Amino acid sequence: SVTGQAGGSWTKTFRLAHNESIEFTGLLENTRYTVSEKDYSDEGYVKTVTGDENAAILAAAPATVTYTNTRNIGDLSVSKTVAGTGAQTDRSFEFTLTLTENAKGADVDGSYNTVIADGETTATGTLTVENGTAQFTLKHGQTITILGIPENTGYTVTEMVSAKALCYQDKKSIPLLELGAGEHPAAVQLF
Fold first, then answer.
1. Rounded CA gap, 93 and 189, in Å?
2. Virtual torsion, Cα 191, 162, 147, 128, nearest 10 deg
3. Pick from 54, 102, 164, 180: most CB atoms within 10 A?
4. d(Cα 97, Cα 155) in Å, to the nearest integer?
5. What is the torsional sign of CA 97, 100, 106, 110?
6. Which residues, 6 or more positions from 122, have their beta carbon under 8 angstroms from its beta carbon?
7. Whole-angstrom Cα distance, residue 142 to residue 81?
8. Computed from CA positions of residues 19, 35, 1, 50, in that sequence, does the dihedral angle turn out positive or negative?
9. What are phi and psi of 41, to 5 degrees?
10. CA 136 to chain centre
């Protein structure tokens, strides 16, 4: 606890974790106070304040200010299917993930936990997003789930297609550009 002094003023900076609180005792009635919290919106947090952040101490009732920081996250799953009589089901196909910050400005760069499953096995790992982008590979029948993406983050997933293979009208590459009914919007990335 911190004790205030009559006729003076002071500033106290402190950190609180989930469900922690701090109490200041010995403050005189009519002492003015201001409480504020650092802005964490760039991390995807939305702040809700209960109580008065700027008021005076009253003897009849203690002043209480409560901050609630809400950060909602979601997951993104991407699956790969290879079809046809010449399908290379053991081949790894390259994808690019692009994330764009949400309206609150939540930073999307960082490491995200992942789960890759193929119906028989499951592997965990991490995917690092730098400057809003990351690359990963999938084989036939695999699904990657990227965990903990801030709510309302925009995303685009593209599969890399060989420009050279298209120039030579490679029969295995051209079907990669075909879109199913539910695959819109879409973009094509050639390399």
1. 13
2. -30
3. 102
4. 7
5. positive
6. 115, 116
7. 8
8. negative
9. -65, -25
10. 18
Q: Compute φ and ψ for 66, nearest 5 degrees.
A: -120, 130
> In this predicted model, what pLDDT tens digit does every residue of 13-29 receive, in sequence order?
999 999 999 998 888 88
The label of the residue with tokens 């949400």 reads: 102
Strands 189-190 and 154-161: parallel
Mark the ranges of the chain whose per-residue pLDDT is less than 50.
1-4
d(CA 176, CA 102) in angstroms, rounded, equals 30
- Whose tokens are 């950190």? That residue is 15
Beta partners for 73?
150
Q: Examine residue 175 and say whether the peptide bond preceding it is cis (omega within 30 degrees of 0).
A: no
* DSSP three-state, residue 51: coil
* Residue 106 CB burial class (10 angstroms; 0-12, 13-18, ≥19): buried
For the stretch 161-185, pLDDT in tens is 666 666 777 776 677 677 777 666 6
Rounded distance, CA 135 to CA 138, Å?
10
Q: How many helices (H) and strands (E) does the chain have?
A: 1, 12
Nearest to 107 by CA among 148, 137, 156: 148
| Encoded tokens for 168 | 């030579």
